[in-house]
Write a structure and sequence with these properties.
globular; 11 helices; mainly alpha
Length: 250
């Protein structure tokens, strides 16, 4: 793959915005980064790049906020996430780029609408339900590097405090990014050479994480839910529109 100034510049702007969202909310590299990067690169390149960026951002978040991670909720999700990754990776090879973009956008929009309409759980689901939720997340991680929607909906529905949501999501995305990237390399779905795009975007990611973290530590924290949902909705609408236009012209 040859990197161009346009692809790196536009990709860096997308990851800077995603990094701010990730630093503030604990999510956003996949949910916001995939739709935005899909505007300038093919999904086959976007998915491994996002997985690597999830790992890099997760290391930083875990060092700072590991004491706030809800381990009892996190651990049952991981076995299902492992099982779902390989089917998702093969779907990535079979589906057309615009179909993936449209599906990503609609998935993000549906997640935002469910949360904003007050979907709520009084207690955590049973272990079997968490494994199934993790499997759905794993499929999404493989096909689009977007493990987030099921996990984000769960934590918001449980009405966890912002610091718990932020840290638990960061821990989960670190694990799913590591699992997804490792399995993609082992299965031969992607090659190590395709990760240069992600490496070129790392400076923008770390700047975004720092800016988002400063927002979370300040008075802006009281807008936690509104900011996260608003930016996610915008990213979802952008990806869905790009996918629909691509399918229409095709």
């Amino acid at each position: 793959m040859s990197l161009t100034l346009w692809s790196v510049g536009a990709g860096s702007a997308a990851i800077l915005a995603s990094g701010i969202l990730r630093g503030f909310t604990g999510f956003g590299i996949g949910l916001a980064g995939v739709p935005l990067l899909a505007l300038v690169a093919e999904p086959r390149l976007v998915v491994p790049s996002i997985m690597l960026l999830q790992i890099a951002s997760g290391i930083q978040n875990l060092l700072q906020d590991r004491r706030h991670i809800d381990i009892r909720l996190l651990l049952p999700l991981l076995p299902g996430a492992v099982l779902g990754i390989v089917p998702g990776l093969w779907l990535l090879l079979w589906l057309a780029a615009d179909v993936v973009r449209l599906g990503i956008g609609l998935l993000v929009i549906a997640t935002v609408l469910a949360i904003s309409r007050g979907f709520r759980l009084e207690r955590p689901p049973r272990r079997s339900a968490l494994v199934a939720l993790g499997a759905a997340s794993g499929v999404l991680n493989g096909v689009a590097a977007m493990a987030g929607p099921p996990m984000i909906a769960l934590l918001f529905a449980l009405r966890r405090p912002p610091e718990i949501i932020r840290a638990t999501l960061a821990g989960y995305f670190f694990c799913t990014g590591l699992l997804g990237l490792g399995m993609a390399l082992l299965q031969g779905v992607i090659s190590a050479g395709e990760l240069w795009f992600a490496i070129a975007l790392l400076p923008a990611l770390f700047i975004g994480l720092a800016l988002g973290g400063r927002l979370f530590d300040g008075d802006f924290r009281r807008h936690y839910h509104k900011v996260g949902l608003g930016l996610l909705l915008l990213a979802g609408l952008s990806a869905a529109a790009r996918g629909m236009l691509g399918l229409y012209w095709t």
